[in-house]
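Hi L.,

You mentioned the student needs an example of a multi-chain input paired with its predicted structure. This one should do, with 478 residues in total across all chains.
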Amino acid sequence: MFKKGILRELYDSIFAKSWPMWFGGVLLAILNILLFVIKYPWGGSGGYLNIGQNLFGSMGVDSLGTSTAINMHTVAILNIMIVLGAFVSSLFSKEFSIKIAPKGELVKGLIGGALMGIGSMVGVGCTTGGFFTGVPALSGGALFLTAGFLIGTFLAMKYILWEMEAFPNVSMGKSYTFLPGTKEGMGWQRWLAWILLAGIIYVISGYNAEGSAAMKILGWHIIIGLTLGFILQRSRYCIVRAFREPFMTGESSAPVAIMIGLLILIFGFTVLKYFGVGNVAETAVRAIEMKAVYPSFWSKALIGGTIFGLGMTIAGGCAIGTLWRAGEGHLKLWMSILGFTVMAPVSKVFIVPVFESFLPESQKIFLPDYLGYTGSVLMVLGFILLAYIFVKWNEKTGKFSAL
Amino acid sequence: MNFDQSLDCKGLSCPMPIIKLSKAIKGMEAGQVLEMIGTDPGSKTDVPAWCEKTGNEFLSMEELDGETKFYIKKK
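Structure written out for the whole complex:
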């Protein structure tokens, strides 16, 4: 028999304190590489779009495009499982409670989510698919999307600081907290977490028992989505933070954590693309090379990225950051999910064509087609090095940080 | 713990607690103590990190059911 103390120690090392964000970056990068191999690398906005289209479809609105059923759509499954994974993880760590922010904040969540819905459709991608995945996938559009995220975050940060001074009441007022974890003993929260885990395993076995390759791929997306949510919540992995922190406190830990994830992904994706690995569904080598390279180069990416950057900073979570915080019980981020889910399909049909009517035509640009693999990887590594020097220099001098 | 001013950040999520904390500390005098009450789990690492970065003294943290109280002394 093992001693109770050992398991308790294990439990505490996982749940007593948040993990360092860079550790989350390493784990998320590994899972993203697995997703690449199984089907397609990680993204978020496609899942919102799918769920939104299904939602409108169920209300009889078909003009916004029909879509795969939610339980058959890999990205929608990942998104839902990230919420559940974060929910389970926050129950275990007793960090879950229903946190209802003041009214003004809830409205900001809704608007931020709506802006992300628009931005991700115009720019073709969010901070996950377009940046965390897109940059190491050596997509040209991803570089412009990243520039857009920076511009949007910078502007929104200015807005938030102005709002604090001019309208402090927006973030003040009645707030409520329900169902918090109690300090002593197991509590209902941990029991619920175990029951949920058992239920999820039952669902996965249902997918896998069906036998077809497509269903097994979906089954694996449930497992990986759950794990992503868990890691995201424990490490509080936040891409908004990485973009925002240089302009706020100046701390470099969040940007560096994302850079570590990017470095691992550049290695992983480049090897997979170079050798054309990832043939679960027998994809052609060229199709593998073009994974996560979207037709957004360059103007759509820049403008969409800026809109998205505004949205994610106002909401306080990007497509993925919104999901795991919602799982933790923040109502503001549920409002962001609502705004994103409604606006993604609406803007795909009504807003994207407006931008396309005056912007130069955007293309899929795979950097190695122009610079070779070596040149592309060196260029991206160069950008990361520059970003590193900037955030470290800014941390010391505080030149760009407002707080 | 004795404090001079209290700041309610309940219900707020990142980055609002840190922005409010920064603003509140700016309006205080050196040596005064601020009590901050929040519900965002992220604040448990963010508040001490912010104090270290800005040189304000992080005195202590008290976890109650669903909310955390932080005590910060302005430098």
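You could point out the following to them. The mean pLDDT of chain A is 92. Strands of chain A lie at 98-100, 176-178, 295-297, 363-364.

Best wishes,
N.
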